[in-house]
Prior knowledge:
By secondary structure, this protein is of the alpha+beta class. The protein has a single domain, classed as 3-Layer(aba) Sandwich (Aminopeptidase). 31% of the residues lie in helices and 40% in strands. The chain is built from four helices and seven strands. It has helices spanning 13-23, 30-38, 82-97, 111-119; strands at 3-7, 42-49, 52-62, 65-73, 101-107, 123-132, 137-144. The longest helix is centred in the middle third of the chain and has 16 residues, at 82-97. The chain is globular and about 40 Å long. The structure holds coenzyme A (COA). Residues 23, 71-73, 78-84, 106, 110-113, 115-116, 119 line the site of coenzyme A (COA). Coenzyme A (COA) binds at residues 23, 71-73, 78-84, 106, 110-113, 115-116, 119.
Amino acid sequence: MEIRIEPLQECYLDQVCALEEEVFSMPWHRESFQEMIEDKNACYLVALHQEEVVGACGLRNIVGDGEVTNVVTKKAYQNRGIGATLLNQLFSIGRTMGVEAYTLEVRVSNRPAIHLYQKLGFKEEGIRKNFYEKPREDALIMWKR
Ligand SMILES: CC(C)(COP(=O)(O)OP(=O)(O)OC[C@H]1O[C@@H](n2cnc3c(N)ncnc32)[C@H](O)[C@@H]1OP(=O)(O)O)[C@@H](O)C(=O)NCCC(=O)NCCS
């Protein structure tokens, strides 16, 4: 299966929004993705199988700290290395943007995601109480330095 990683473009916005809605209880709005396309200090990547968006992830550079946003792989495509490929590509781009360390939040119960982040060098550094809603849950704060 051939997967291409590309920067998000307008033509993929509908699919990215649909993917978020499929997977997250609090999906981002279309405008947030639009802003990621336009923001020079941000980068949003999609994983494509032919012209189908099967994964996505984003990065915001906040003066050298890279905030990793909504990492997602379409259910039918999970566990095939797409999440890791997306994040590794994001780190390469982050280097060119001057990102020195990466941080993210993840639900404390989200074992697959935490496992993936640990595999890529993220360490648990704190808990943000009741960070999430639907359902209410603590966030684990992870950093890759
Ligand atoms: C987290 C997520 C993005 C991972 O994407 P993916 O494309 O499946 O990731 P990869 O295939 O690159 O790697 C997944 C790793 O997690 C592990 N994993 C996958 N599913 C798992 C599960 N149900 N339980 C435990 N580990 C799991 C895999 O074993 C793999 O590690 P390994 O190589 O050591 O075996 C995907 O599960 C997802 O979209 N989840 C829903 C959205 C989400 O929770 N995003 C994170 C928000 S912070």
